[in-house]
Design goal:
The complex is a heterotrimer of chains A (359), B (342) and C (303). Chain A has 359 residues and is an alpha/beta fold. Chain A is built from 13 helices and twelve strands. In chain A, the strands form two sheets. Chain A has an eight-stranded mixed β-sheet, sandwiched between helices. Chain A has a four-stranded antiparallel β-sheet with strand order 2-1-4-5, with helices on one face. Helices cover 71% and strands 0% of the residues of chain B. The longest helix of chain B is centred in the middle third of the chain and has 36 residues. With 342 residues, chain B is mostly helical. Chain C contains ten helices and no strands. Chain C has 303 residues and is mainly α. The chains are: A alpha/beta (359), B mainly alpha (342), C mainly alpha (303). The interface between B and C is large, with 56 and 53 residues.
Chain lengths: 359, 342, 303
């Protein structure tokens, strides 16, 4: 049995703004085992980034972790004192962020930025750290690492900056690396390179990884398990293959529908999810997805479903479940996703190209 | 207080091609400095020109006494000859320039025969002392208060320091100076039967310096503090600060190496105007506290129409300010690696 | 030409609609700023005082500020007829303070009236013509910028004598650069907009169009700049009076009063305090108003 590295139990993180309390993370439970790669997917605002920030206790003002436990190897992160949390960050668990240009100190050279991560935790002496920086940069495939370590972030290209960030994240050999949308800010070609790199590193180092993204294709290539979040809650969870093959929650289904697939018949078009993400300070009653769900029934509007087991190691939070939905309804759902204009333009019954959900 | 928006784009007239020749940043840095220094020359020239023109456009002549008996024509003619005022304007100007380059700014009208250079040299040490001390006070206090207010945003410390800054920024030098003298010298003396008071006149390298230096520094401290606070608050919100925390760095490291290293950069650019302010401020402060520096000499020159003295000190002030701005610009290039030197 | 006229008309209508709403909006925001309101109240009081003081003297409610009462020299505050005391020539402090406000306010405000056309003209010229003229004018302002303001004013006043005209002129000449730069920036950004391109491509020189657009867009920042210019001007005038080269006696100014009070500081310490506080609080008041205006007329004002 794989040992559980990180266990998040019923986490609630809320933002206390002048316009009300925003329940960004509304009871999230998940776990990551040693060495595995977990994907966390959902559209913008669903709480995935805040969950990650909560794990490191980096929730910005006016947010706060209100309740729940975050157990890393048995220690509750929420209850750690200042010294313990400093020890924990960048050492046991490291995080890399979305936009490497703004996430790096613009007036310090790259080398020292990576070094300071190592020397701050007293894991390496300054001299050793310097050598290791070059090792790390080489490992993440930054050419001429020694010279490059003396450059400033603005002298790096986007892809190289992200590599440098990855190097920084891995510098203290953390057991878990959290990557928040690591490829979103990059060019498509560079994205592919970074994904390759991450796969390789995962193989070589065996570091567990939490990959946060709205890009299902990324999940497919890198992750073993995936957690789908919506409106601050987990709505589906399970092994990647299973989820992709038979998603049970309508939201997951819609997400997958909107990913272009090479193996699909040409006639199949993409479906966009109509409607907007919910207002987290004033969420809808019942199932939070019901206003946008193509398969909604009366019960959904009133009562929120619990996470129920739908298959081996797969859970979903839905009263209906995709396997109970008829083919006719599915076909109807694809057409109804169209706006009136588009339907007229395309002369139905094909669906409108939607692309990835709004990021 | 001309601390207005929009810094002049100096050096833009000179060709940029030169910097393309030198590959390294050190090379282009030298070129940059040279260009800036060269740019100072036309500015100083124009300052001299304009001041000179103004002197000579003035109605009346410098020998008109304010009220009372006027000098006789013979005396006037002699005076004019003595000071070269009977030559054609252009010639006077050229002559002035020539002399100026040789650091000869003519003879003062007030103190007959005494050269302007000598008068300036006499006042220099006093003004220097004041200026340097004020500067040494402004930078740590101004920046310190600003950082403190930013790090403890919306706390009492923040409100108090920023409130103080707003007040200090609105009350002019001489107002604050006068109020300080009243309360700390006169009234304190009266109330404590002369047991405690801060001296308010003349100069001495002791507690005589306290009030003038504070009066001079108050306004720059105020706006430095405000700017530092704004810049620091801005920096704190940046993504890379979050990265720094995520690396598990201590608060001290995050504040110094990440926050301050970035937020103090814009503050450096205010050092130039601060210097200019110290120069003009010294005029007022020296008058209030009766300090025999260049500032006070300037004021007496103005009220007695001592044109050579006025010209000389104006040129001096402008040069000081231009040099200060140059130093600040160069410093800025040093500390911000993102600046391109084209 | 049909095209530019149509473009002009369409945009005209657009501006009118939007602007009224924005001004009302700004007024609301301004009203919520307590400091700004405080400042406004103080300035209002000053204006009233400035207007009423000659009347008050006429009706004998306060003493003429130039009357010297030899038997009441350097009296402290609290006396019946001299509520705030007298100065070294026996002149009543309170009435001098009140009359001083006339000078301070008029210098502060009227100088802006001089700065406005100069700044507008130069800014417009630089922005509209661009190229060499712009360059030249900007170099010109650079040189102007190199002159520290106080020194320049002092030099001008020394040359032309401390008359009302020369003081007004000198202060205006020192402070127009900021406004010119602002206007130039606005013109440049308007020039970038598409309808200008359209107008230009159909052959007309879009000067009128630019000016028409300049007004609504930059009115906000211009007002803020001028408002901040008022305390600057008051300050310069006060310094001049303080140094003895400003507006000459017997006209009372606050700067003079500080100087006089300073001379008598040991005999009558409070005589310096009143004018000093008057200057300070007036400048503070205008600063608060300026801040309030700036916040109220924020980017939301501009399209």
């Amino acid at each position: 049995m794989a040992q559980t590295l990180l266990q998040v139990e019923d986490l609630h993180t809320q933002f206390f703004t002048s316009r009300g309390v925003v329940r960004a993370v509304d009871g999230v439970t998940l776990h990551i085992d040693a060495g595995e790669t977990l994907g966390i997917v959902g559209e913008s605002g669903c709480g995935k980034t805040i969950t990650a920030l909560s794990i490191l206790r980096l929730v910005p003002d006016p947010g706060r972790i209100v309740s729940g436990r975050i157990l890393f190897r048995g220690n509750d992160v929420v209850k750690m004192d200042d010294e313990e949390i400093r020890d924990f960050r960048g050492n046991d668990v490291a995080m890399i962020f979305q936009d490497p240009m703004t996430s790096l100190n613009p007036v310090t050279k790259i080398g020292p930025q990576i070094e300071e991560s190592m020397t701050a935790h007293n894991r390496f002496t300054p001299v050793l750290a310097k050598t290791r920086v070059i090792e790390l940069l080489t490992r993440v495939r930054v050419p001429s690492a020694e010279r490059r370590a003396r450059d400033y972030p603005h002298q790096f290209s986007g892809g190289m900056r992200q590599r440098a960030m990855i190097a920084m994240g891995l510098s203290n050999e953390p057991e878990l690396l959290i990557a928040d949308e690591p490829t979103t800010a990059l060019d498509v070609t560079v994205q592919a390179q970074i994904i390759q790199l991450m796969k390789q590193l995962n193989r070589e180092l065996g570091t567990a990884m939490m990959l946060i993204t709205h890009n299902m294709a990324l999940v497919a290539s890198l992750c073993q398990r995936v957690v789908v979040m919506y409106a601050g809650r987990v709505v589906e969870e399970g092994p990647v293959e299973q989820i992709f093959r038979s998603p049970q929650h309508p939201y997951t289904w819609s997400l997958l529908r909107s990913v272009p697939r090479v193996d699909e018949a040409r006639k199949e078009r993409l479906v966009s999810i109509k409607g907007l993400p919910p207002d987290l300070s004033n969420p809808p009653p019942g199932c939070k997805f019901h206003p946008r769900c193509p398969f909604v029934v009366e019960r959904c509007k009133v009562e929120e479903p619990p996470l129920g087991e739908v298959d081996v190691e797969q859970v979903a939070r839905c009263w209906v479940l995709m396997r109970n939905v008829s083919e006719l309804d599915i076909a109807a759902a694809k057409t109804s996703a169209l706006s009136v204009d588009a339907a007229r333009k395309l002369k139905a019954p094909v669906s409108e190209v939607g692309g990835a959900p709004t990021s | 207080m001309a601390v207005t928006a929009g810094r002049p784009n100096r050096g833009a007239l000179l060709p940029a091609r030169v910097s393309a020749l030198t590959g390294s940043r050190a090379g282009s840095l030298t070129i940059f400095i040279v260009r800036r220094v060269l740019w100072m020359i036309p500015i100083i020239f124009f300052v001299i020109l304009i001041t000179f023109l103004l002197m000579h456009l003035a109605p009346g002549s410098p020998w008109d006494k304010d009220g009372g008996r006027q000098l006789s024509q013979v005396v006037r003619d002699n005076l004019n000859a003595k000071y070269g005022l009977n030559k054609p304007e252009l010639q006077q100007f050229m002559l002035y320039l020539w002399n100026a380059i040789h650091f000869d700014f003519g003879l003062s009208y007030q103190y007959s025969g005494k050269s302007v250079v000598k008068l300036i040299a006499e006042g220099w040490p006093y003004t220097m002392t004041l200026g340097v001390l004020a500067f040494l006070l402004i930078v740590p206090v101004g920046v310190g208060l600003g950082v403190l207010a930013a790090l403890r945003q919306n706390s009492r410390v923040d409100y108090i320091t920023m409130g103080f800054a707003t007040f200090a920024a609105s009350f002019p030098n001489f107002v604050i100076g006068a109020l300080m003298v009243v309360f700390l010298s006169v009234l304190m003396a009266k109330w404590t039967q002369r047991a405690f008071f801060l001296p308010a006149a003349d100069f001495g390298l002791d507690d005589h310096l306290i009030m003038p230096v504070i009066t001079l520094s108050l306004l720059p401290i105020a706006y430095t503090a405000r700017l530092t606070r704004a810049s620091t608050l801005d920096t704190i919100r940046q993504d890379f600060i979050r990265t720094a925390w995520a690396k598990g760095l201590s608060e001290r490291l995050v504040v110094v190496r990440h926050i301050l290293k970035n937020s103090l950069i814009p503050v450096v650019t205010t050092l130039g105007p601060t210097f200019a302010f110290l120069v003009t401020g010294s005029i007022i402060v020296e008058t209030i506290f009766n300090i025999p520096g260049i500032g006070r000499a300037f004021v007496t020159a103005v009220s007695s129409r001592d044109y050579p003295m006025i010209l000389g000190t104006t040129v001096l002030f402008s040069v000081i300010i231009a040099v200060a701005n140059l130093v600040v610009d160069v410093l800025y290039v040093f500390i911000d690696p993102r600046v391109r030197l084209t | 030409m049909a095209i530019p006229v149509a473009v002009e008309q369409a945009i005209d209508w657009e501006i009118g609609e939007q602007q009224i709403g924005l001004w009302r909006d700004a007024w609301q925001r301004f009203r919520r700023n307590r400091l700004a309101l405080l400042g406004g109240a103080l300035v209002l009081i000053l204006v009233v005082v400035a207007f009423l003081s000659p009347l008050l003297v006429h009706f004998g409610i306060i003493i003429n500020p130039t009357t010297q009462e030899v038997e009441h020299i350097e009296v402290g505050p609290g006396m019946f007829r001299h509520v705030l005391g007298t100065d070294q020539l026996g002149r009543d402090t309170l009435s001098r303070l009140m009359f001083g406000s006339r000078i301070s306010l008029s210098v502060g405000i009227l100088v802006q009236g001089i700065i406005l056309p100069i700044g507008l003209a130069i800014g417009l010229t630089a922005g509209y013509f661009g190229g060499r003229i712009d360059n030249l004018l900007m170099r010109f302002t650079d040189i102007w910028y190199a002159f520290p303001d106080l020194i320049f004013v002092l030099v001008l006043v020394s040359v032309f004598g401390p008359s009302l005209l020369s003081i007004f002129g000198a202060i205006a000449l020192v402070n127009w650069v900021g406004l010119a730069r602002l206007v130039r920036g606005q013109v440049l950004s308007i020039k970038e907009k598409e309808f200008i391109e359209a107008a230009r491509s159909s052959g007309s020189a879009p000067f009128k169009l630019i000016v028409k657009h300049l007004l609504p867009n930059s009115l906000g920042p211009i007002i803020v700049t001028l408002t901040f210019g008022i305390p600057q001007a008051i300050f310069l005038e006060a310094v001049l009076s303080f140094l003895g080269v400003g507006i000459q006696p017997p006209t009372p100014t606050w700067g003079q009063m500080v100087f006089d009070g300073y001379e008598a500081i040991y005999a009558n310490p409070t005589s310096v305090v009143f004018p000093a506080l008057a200057i300070g609080f007036t400048l503070l008041a205008f600063s608060f108003i300026g801040d309030g205006l700036r916040d109220a007329l924020d980017p939301r004002m501009r399209r």
